[in-house]
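> @MW can you paste both from yesterday?
MW: sure, first one:
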Amino acid sequence: MYLTIKKNKKKKKASILIIGNEILSGRTQDLNVSFLANWLNLKCGISVNEVRVIPDIEKIIIKNIRELSRTYKYVFTTGGIGPTHDDITAKSISKAFKVKYEYHKKAYSILLKYYGETKFNDGRKKMAMMPKGSSLIKNPSSAAPGFKIKNVLCLPGVPSILKSMIDNCLTYLTKGSKVLSYSINLMTVESNIAKQLGKIQKKYSKNVDIGSYPFFRLGAIGVSIVSRSTKKNKLKSCTDEIKKMVREKNIKAFKIK
C-alpha cells in the first residue's frame, strides 16, 4: 500500500528511547538505533538528536517519556510491548500521559483473529492493552501492533519485526527536507586535518554537519569525512573546500561520492 505524508521544508527532530534490561545487561545487542536513524534521516528528512537506553522500570520510563515528548517533535520507543510480565512500556506511557490503560478494540480483534479463540491467552491479550486514544501501527510479521499516542510511536524490540512495521509509521509523520551527504576517505590521521576541517565546519555551521571518523583497514590508518546537509548548494560549496584542502595537503583520497 502506498502512503503519502505531509511535506515541510523545515527539518524535524526526533529522539529514540530503547527500553529493555536485556540491552543494558549486554545479553542482547541493540540493532534498532542505526536502522531507525538511517530510515528517519534518509526517508523522512527527520534528524535524530538524542538516543537513550533505559531499564524496564516504570518510574524511569515515565520520566523519560515526559522529558522527551516535551523536547522533540517525535519520540520512537523500542521494546517492552510484548506479552510477558516485564513488558510494561504501554502501561508506563499511559501513566506518563495520565490516560487510561485499556484494551484497544481493534488491536484485540486483530490478535483474536490471528491466534484464534483457543490460543488467545492472557499473555497475548496483554498485547492489545494500550493507552486510551492510541492509534495502531500495523504489524505484518506477527500481528501484535505497535501504537502511537501524542508524539510517541511505540515499536517492538525485535529488529526483524520492527523493520517490517516501520513504513506503517509514515502516515503519522510530517516529512522534512531530504538529507544529502557526501563522503571522502583519506589516507591520513585526524590530527593532520583537524585545524583546517574545523575552519570549514565553522564557516558552514548553519547549513552543513561535518563528521570525522577514523578507520583502520588493510593495515592502513585513515579518516572518513562525511558532510550532510538539506541544502544542495551549501553541501557542494562545503565539499569543494574539503577537496581543495585535501589537494593542498597532498593527501591520498579514494571512494569519493
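MW: second:
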Amino acid sequence: MRDAAPLVLVVDDDVSVRESLDALIRFDGWRVETFASAQEFLDRPPVQGASCLVLDVSLPDLSGLDLQEQIQRMDMPIIFITGHGDIPMTVRAMKAGAVEFLTKPFSDTVLLNAIRDAIDRSRVVCGKEAEMQALRMCYASLSRREREVMASVVSGRANKQVGGELGISEITVKAHRGHVMRKMQAASLADLVRMAAALNLPRT
C-alpha cells in the first residue's frame, strides 16, 4: 500500500538540527521521519510512495555520500546539507543524482523549496512506476496464445500472416487480438506497440 502523503526523511547526527528540521518541515505540511545515523535509516523498511531524503554529509557511521551510493533510488531524491562542503564533495553528490547541495547556514525558504522540488520529482517517478506496474499486470493476464498473437501483431504482421505462423484461422487471430486489446487496455495498434516497447518485449 502506498503512503497517503509524501514523506520527508531526515538523517543528521545533531539532535538540535533534527528537531529544528522536523518542526520546520511539519509546519510546512509534510510528514517527517528523522534518523540519527545512516544505519538507523537503513534499518527502516523501504518507503513506498513519493518521498525525499534530507541527508547530512558527515555522519558517525556511514557518510552521507556513501549512503547515497547504497540507496540508488530515483524515486527518493536526495538533498544534501553540510556545514563544510567543498567543490569535489558537491560534484560527487550531484553526479550521483543529488538534487541539491546546501551549505549551512541556509534559509528555511531555500530548504523548503528544495524539498518541494524533490517531492515533485519523486511523484513523477512513482507515477511512471505505477503505470509500468499496471502494464505488467495487464500483460500477465494474457494467455500464452494471446502473448504470441500480440508479439506478431506489434511486429507488423497482418492477421492472415499471424494465423499462418501460429497454425490458427484468421478469425481466431482476430478474436485473440480483440482479447489482447481489451486486456491491455490499448486504444489502438499504435498504443499496443508502445506498450510492447515499454515492456521491452522481444520482436518476432
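> thanks! The chain has a mean pLDDT of 91.
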